[in-house]
Amino acid sequence: MRRGLLNSAGYSALLVAALWAPPVLAQDGEAAGDEAATQNTTQNKGGLNEIIVTAQRKAESLQDAAIAIDAVGGEDLVSKGISQAENLTKTVPALTVTNGGGSNTSIFIRGVGNITNSSYNDPAVAPSYDGVVLARAAGAFGAAFYDLERVEVLKGPQGILYGRNATGGAVNIIPAKPVLGERSAGFTVSFGNYDAVSAQGHLNLPLGDNAALRVAASRDVHDGYNKDGSDDLKRSGLRAQLLFEPTDTLSIRIGGDYTHVGGVGAGSSYIGNYTSGSDGYTFTASGLGNSEGLYTDAANAYRQTALGAPGFGFLSAIDEQQFTDNTYWGVNAEIKLKTGLGDLTFIPAYRKTKAESLFYGPAFNTAYTNERDEQFSSELRLSGSVGMIDYVVGGFYFDENIDNTGVYNQEFVLPIQHYTHKTTSYAGFGQLTANLSDSFRLIGGLRYTHDKKSIDGLINNFITFCGSVATLITPPDSFANGCAVDGALPRYPTLTSTADTVNWLISNGYIASGSTDEAAYQVYDLTSGAGQILKTYYPVVKSGSFSRVTWKAGAEFDAAPDSLLYATVESGYRAGGFQLSEGNPSYKPEFITAFTLGSKNRFLNNKVQLNIEAFYWKYKDQQINYFTYSGGVLVNQIDNAGRADIKGFDVDLTAKPWWTTTFNAKVQFLDTEYKELTLTTASPRDNINCPSSVAGTDGSTTILAFDCSGKPLLYSPKWTVNLGVEHVVPVSDNLEFVGSVQTAWRDKQWGAFEYLDFEKIPAYWTTDATLTARLPNSGFSVTAYINNIENKRRISSPQYSPIGFAVARYTAPQTYGIRVSAQF
User: For this UniProt entry, which residues form the secretion signal (predicted)?
Assistant: First the structure.
């Protein structure tokens, strides 16, 4: 087992002093570090291990891969308690993963990513599971984190060898595979505070001489970290794989997986509220703690102090608990055939998602979504060598269909949305490596991608006005008209159809009669005389195609047997698309060009590893998501940002002076800047901390343009540091103790495009520690763990609402417990 590559900080000195063992025991030990599985790790006694990766569509040592990549072995994932994607940041400084509620998961690498508020926007960082690219990150990150061989994080554009183009990078989740001739099993069970229980296990069975079956399952639960029960976890997973090798030249592996994610779901808490006046916006803190949640008596009392527009009545308490009910399943295969031309690989896959959720947001009482996604993909590639040329060529096909119903209840505004979205993508790719000598290689690659997309959707808005649609009354006059009095104006329930909403208004006496035709504009007079209701109709039916050739050029040089120098320049592309948005139903593709210079080295008889990488990325037309003014309304939509520069360096140092002790340090410096970024909006969404100017008017509405050029990209901390130490104390041939401490520093960073003070996430340290007793010859271990020793919850994803609320989701509090593992 590789014992190491764990991170640490100020707590490490105390732990090492307590556990230190003399280095003279080194001749009896094995190497420390990541051990993903027999297939992907090679052991070296007394030195650092090698982890095998397949990021370049071939098996090679991580140290031999001339690309920007981090890899975490499956056993290291277990030892660090990484059972979901958000915790990958403990080992990958460049990565940020957030869950903003519902089934939305956002991934950023070095500031390149996208805040996911809709399912029709392709991810900038592409997730994949078992070699199958996934259109939606939630399906992979909510489902796959158990019985893994490894996780690979590729930093930078993936425009050649991967299933779909990605501008920011890729996260490859690779499950442990069946092993021929092996009868084995294992499990890990942990118990912790917040009534946390986590269990995962696997079984590998031989089926004759040329077949094997591997079955794995997991169950993870814990209570909510917030007082309202949110930020909980209820997840179950099952996976089965059958491997059949009838001949030496043919291998067939078929897999299926199923995951259900339930519970309350992700939650946020109120930070405060912004109110507008003659001198601009004034912020008032809520006085609530960061674990309050939005569905407690105190949170509801605070919510009811705010006025909602355009009805200008005080908001109602949230009266329904949120929930998550998501199911992900899929089947896939990997067929490999050795031919006279090279190795042929075929990967067909089908995946389906059913996601239903009710969740809170800063702008609405409750939001309900019901979505059905299905995707089919197939990839065929051929790899081999001809003379001094190594080659990989192939083709890729992808088809995705989405059916979504969403209701975002803002009390005085009830949007009811439904859309179907379809994507069909074709690609052909090839990469050549010219081995000009034993130590020098040139690489070139091309990929042509054609994406075809379409959307067919409809938005019906029910908007309650204080006064009339034509002459909107605003406070304090609205109070005289009774608009702020309970019952004067309707507070909509969460209804999913136009007909149900109109009938509800009639049956509750708000209107006398009205049309239930969704394809119509209509104004309803309130029977109270306090105002009117406008029912809008906005269809979006759009389709189109996007095509691009992306490329890569690089050079590799083996300066010494354990020293690699490499340089690459490559381009990335993310297709444009269509959205359910009034006035702006389409957005353009985004592009990136990345320059990388790196060096990977092992020194001192394989006891020191030093990897250094410098990068410079040119980013153009980034697809961003924010509230803007479009088509006469304020709407959250995707737009293109302009230009940005990203530059910096990574340093990764691992030292193992004795087999008992491993030190690790990872440092990333990141400098990001928007060269062009203009955000256009109108009141009350004009609270943006950038210089503004009048861009025009739309009737009586003044449209403002905010020049945010010079601001950094979101989720791009200038400095990120991961430090760690692990120390082994041998007691006997059959017993040893292992202590580890890991800590991570994240510099301050921005989490939203308004660039308001609360949206700047402060810098912080987070430290974890473990103490393990293990029987190395039997595969049994018991671990005591504590995460977030500082016991501080940090802002994970801030959000500003149209009605002025400032809210945020927070990282996990301090957690601790016992973990038991065994291998048979």
Answer: 1-26
